[in-house]
Write a structure and sequence with these properties.
The protein is of the alpha/beta class. It has six helices and 15 strands. The radius of gyration is 17 Å and the shape is globular.
Length: 254
């Protein structure tokens, strides 16, 4: 069951914990500080991510959420200290907006080599009360590392990136990755998505740590995605229902 996850070292204190056996190729990130560890997202929830985290860090762990989509909060149940943006607090504790069957259809969409013991019929989207509510500009202090919350709505209302000025890392969630970027659900907003891409474009970034797919992507991806949105905007099509737009290294579905 433990070989469900792949652990890759970004630096001595930062690890990617990835689920490459599933078509979404979701990445979570463990940031170890002197006093605390921060886990950014907890993945699909089909295997125990806590075991992996505990094998890498002997520290109190806070699980922070880029956004409350099922593939990023699946392992939240293994943690006592959960942080989420104020606009998606109720998605965790009151009602998740996407029907369970839609989630299960996505989870099982392509052939997927689920770990032994995983039962799709028993799968539920995590619900729980977050201990920490995040706001744009908040700092998460791990001792010798400080991480800033950057509210980047569009893919979802409370989507956040996490920026570490000490290393110039941007943990970009579902805002920036190499693949299909989604802004077609009722709870998404293509205009806000575009605005958020423009916002992170202004940050000094040495490395992007994306929420899905290829782990090593060039920082220039941000400019490419911004240019893609600009092109759709210029043609007057940046609104929901206009379908799939193809670019060289990514797609935008609105
Ligand atoms: Zn998402
Ligand atoms: Zn995602």
């Amino acid at each position: 069951m433990t070989d469900w996850f792949t652990v890759e070292k970004i630096d001595n204190q930062t690890f990617a914990i990835s689920e490459y056996k599933h078509w979404e190729e979701t990445h979570c990130y463990l940031l170890c500080g002197q006093e605390k560890a921060l886990l950014i997202d907890t993945g699909l929830g089909v295997s125990d991510i806590r075991k992996i985290v505990d094998s890498l860090a002997d520290l109190p762990v806070m699980a922070a959420t880029t956004h409350v989509h099922w593939d990023h909060i699946g392992g939240h149940r293994y943690f006592e200290n959960i942080a989420v943006h104020e606009l998606e607090k109720d998605w965790l504790s009151v009602k998740f907006p996407i029907p369970l069957q839609t989630v299960k259809n996505n989870l099982t969409k392509f052939p997927c080599d689920f770990p032994a013991g995983f039962d799709i019929d028993a799968y539920r989207v995590f619900q729980g009360v977050p201990q920490i509510v995040l706001h744009d500009g908040d700092w998460l202090d791990l001792g010798d590392r400080k991480i800033q919350v950057v509210h980047t709505p569009g893919h979802s209302p409370g989507h956040c990136c996490f920026y570490e000025p000490g290393r110039n890392y941007l943990f970009s969630g579902d805002l920036i990755y190499k693949g299909c970027l989604y802004a077609f659900y009722p709870t998404t907003d293509p205009q806000l998505f575009y605005h958020s891409v423009k916002r992170v474009q202004k940050y000094k970034i040495s490395r992007i740590l994306p929420g899905h797919h290829q782990l090593n992507i060039p920082v220039s991806m941000i400019d490419e995605i911004e240019a893609g949105f600009a092109q759709i905007e210029e043609s007057g099509k940046l609104k929901q229902g206009n379908g799939l737009f193809e670019f060289r290294d990514f797609q935008i579905q609105i």
